[in-house]
Amino acid sequence: MWEDFKKFALKGNVLDLAVAVIIGTAFGKIITSLVEDIIMPAVGIMLGGFSVEDWAYTFNGAELRYGVFTQSVIDFFIIAFSIFLVIRLFTRMKRKNDVPAEEEPEVLDKKEQLLVEIRDLLSKEKTGL
Q: Model-level pTM?
């Protein structure tokens, strides 16, 4: 059982996934900080100190803070859009690097060329063309 686990854990895919999760977590913290510490305060300044986090409804002493939920939804869309832009940038950079080289036409020697011709002739005989 231990050997099977070692084979599984040390496969390239599992290690790649682990690295991706760690980097994704760190990237998520950066984007969250960007949204919470830079973008949303700038939006608040442009709107004259307006903040949706302050929205609340009080009923019989219970406070329903729907502004915090609204702010979380706004943060989600900003974070999702930021990640979309980063992935799009990386995809474009990868496409530029992955330009396929032109394939050289296959050169057949005389024997191979003769075999191709025989194959084509036999195929024509079978189909009756």
A: 0.51
